[in-house]
Amino acid sequence: NLEIKKINDEKKAALAAQFAAEATLRRVHAAQKDDEMPPIEAIITPLEAELKLARLE
């Protein structure tokens, strides 16, 4: 049971990281279409926040 819980937690964390990375890529692509790249902090900060929230769940 403990192993199953560990695997489920790892899977959940991996999915959260994947969703956060995909959202970041969407922001980067949208910014590139505008020909105006925002500062890297504007892209990384939301990603870090999403990952922190996922870890707390």
Q: Would you mind describing this structure in some detail?
A:
It is found in: Cytoplasm, Cytoskeleton. One of its GO terms (biological process) is cytoskeleton organization. It holds the Pfam family MAP70. Belongs to the MAP70 family. GO terms for molecular function: microtubule binding. This protein has 57 residues and is an all-alpha fold. It has a domain at 20-57. The protein contains 2 helices and no strands. Helix 1 (2-33) runs antiparallel to helix 2. The radius of gyration is 15 Å and the shape is elongated.
What's the SSE blueprint?
Layout: H1 2-33, H2 40-56
Helix pairs in contact: 1-2
Family: Belongs to the MAP70 family.
InterPro entries: MAP70
GO molecular function: microtubule binding
Strand content: under 5%
Taken from the alpha-carbon principal axes, the silhouette is: elongated
Oligomer: single chain
Give the mean pLDDT.
Answer: 83
Main β-sheet description: none
Listing every helix as H and every strand as E from the N terminus to the C terminus, the arrangement reads HH
Total strand count, please? 0
Helicity range: over 70%
Family: Belongs to the MAP70 family.
Main location: cytoplasm
GO biological process, one term: cytoskeleton organization
GO cellular component, one term: microtubule
